[in-house]
């Protein structure tokens, strides 16, 4: 396996994970703003179960895609 | 800082009756785009496999490109989902609040005072809008020269009925609780008995 491939792949993965963290911070920033308008007692309007599911699935897919591509390359090529 | 926020919260206390998102039909396009992203990914991966005999470097570059592309599609899809989820319509006793958020690009909050609503009309156009029961609601308030357009509202009839009932103080507890629970399901946050 050429090392340049794995180095570039690692850079893409790091960028993707970094983007995930940055997006997460922004999501929390927006949500806190909305909760502040509605009041803490109405936080469940914003932090719904579906919202938590989307976030968890988002994290899962980023990790999954890293392993999928790495695994494909390692197995087939 | 903490004290100021505490005071603000107490003054801006909103009693939420119903909250919901735009109609789910707006998610169809990003969903198909995401599917297209997966298709392109596998297509490029197969191409890379074919190019392996020609050059390892070319196939490696194709794989990296396809990976990058799929990550971008993935981010776009999930940010769209989360944008949709946090872009909420909230109806309180006095206000219709619309949080319209796009991560890093848009963070709008629209307050419509229910008691100042002058006219309210719905516009449901097209086959799918009528079939799936969603559409635009135009709200006229005296202070605004143009109507406030609420787009892609699910069940606009129920939305209008609720706003009008709140405006005219004629909310009938039993009927409206049943209707709202049926239409918006578990998104009904608080019982209407406090109204």
Secondary structure layout plus pairing:
The complex is a heterodimer of chains A (77) and B (195).
Chain A: H1 3-38, H2 43-46, H3 49-76
Helix pairs in contact in A: 1-3
Chain B: H1 2-11, E1 16-21, H2 28-51, H3 56-86, E2 88-92, E3 95-102, E4 106-113, E5 119-123, H4 127-132, E6 134-140, E7 148-154, H5 156-167, H6 173-184
Antiparallel strand pairs in B: 1-2, 2-3, 3-4, 5-6, 6-7
Helix pairs in contact in B: 2-3
Widest sheet: strand ordering of chain B? 1-2-3-4
Radius of gyration of chain B from the CA trace? Answer: 23 Å
Radius of gyration of chain A: 18 Å
- Report the β-strand fraction of chain B as a percent range: 15-25%
- Write down how many β-strands of chain A occur, each being a DSSP E stretch of 2 or more residues: 0
Q: What's the shape of chain A?
A: elongated
Core attributes:
heterodimer, A: 77 residues, mainly alpha, 88% helix, 0% strand, elongated, B: 195 residues, alpha+beta, PH-domain like, three-stranded antiparallel β-sheet, 6 helices, 7 strands, 24% strand, disordered N terminus, disordered C terminus
Can you describe this structure?
The complex is a heterodimer of chains A (77) and B (195). Chain A is an all-alpha fold. Chain A contains 3 helices and no strands. Chain B is an alpha+beta fold and 195 residues long. Chain B folds into 2 domains: 2-22 and 89-185, PH-domain like, CATH 2.30.29; 29-83. Chain B is 49% helix and 24% strand. Chain B has 6 helices and 7 strands, in the order αβααββββαββαα. In chain B, strands 1-2-3-4 form a 4-stranded antiparallel beta sheet. In chain B, strands 5-6-7 form a 3-stranded antiparallel beta sheet. Chain A binds chain B through residues 2, 4-5, 8-9, 12, 16, 19, 23, 26-27, 30-31, 33-34, 36-40, 42, 44-46, 48, 50-51, 54-55, 57-58, 61-62, 65, 69, 72-73, 76-77, and chain B through 5, 8-9, 12-14, 16, 19, 45, 48-49, 52, 56-57, 59-60, 63-64, 66-68, 70-71, 74-75, 78-79, 81-82, 85-86, 88, 90, 97, 99, 101, 103-104, 107, 109, 189.
């Amino acid at each position: 396996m050429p090392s340049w491939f794995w180095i570039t792949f690692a850079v893409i993965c790091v960028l993707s994970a970094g983007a995930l963290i940055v997006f997460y911070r922004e999501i929390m920033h927006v949500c806190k703003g909305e909760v502040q308008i509605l009041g803490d007692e109405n936080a469940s309007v914003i932090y719904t179960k579906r919202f938590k599911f989307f976030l968890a699935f988002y994290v899962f897919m980023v990790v999954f895609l890293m392993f999928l591509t790495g695994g494909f390359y390692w197995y087939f090529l | 800082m903490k004290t100021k926020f505490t005071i603000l919260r107490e003054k801006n206390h909103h009693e939420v009756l119903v909250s919901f998102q735009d109609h789910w039909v707006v998610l169809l396009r990003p969903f198909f785009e995401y599917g297209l992203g997966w298709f392109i990914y596998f297509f490029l991966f197969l191409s890379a496999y074919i190019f392996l005999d020609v050059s390892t470097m070319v196939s490696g570059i194709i794989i990296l490109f396809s990976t990058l592309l799929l990550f971008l599609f993935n981010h776009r899809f999930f940010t769209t989902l989360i944008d949709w989820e946090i872009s909420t319509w909230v109806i309180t006793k006095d206000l219709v609040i619309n949080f319209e958020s796009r991560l890093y690009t848009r963070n709008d909050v629209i307050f419509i005072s229910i008691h100042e609503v002058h006219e309210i009309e719905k516009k449901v156009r097209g086959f799918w809008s009528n079939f799936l029961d969603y559409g635009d609601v135009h709200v006229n308030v005296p202070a605004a020269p143009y109507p406030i357009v609420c787009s892609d509202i699910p069940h606009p009839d129920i939305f209008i009925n609720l706003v009008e009932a709140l405006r005219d103080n004629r909310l009938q507890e039993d009927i409206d609780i049943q209707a709202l629970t049926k239409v918006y399901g578990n998104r009904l946050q608080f019982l209407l008995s406090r109204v």
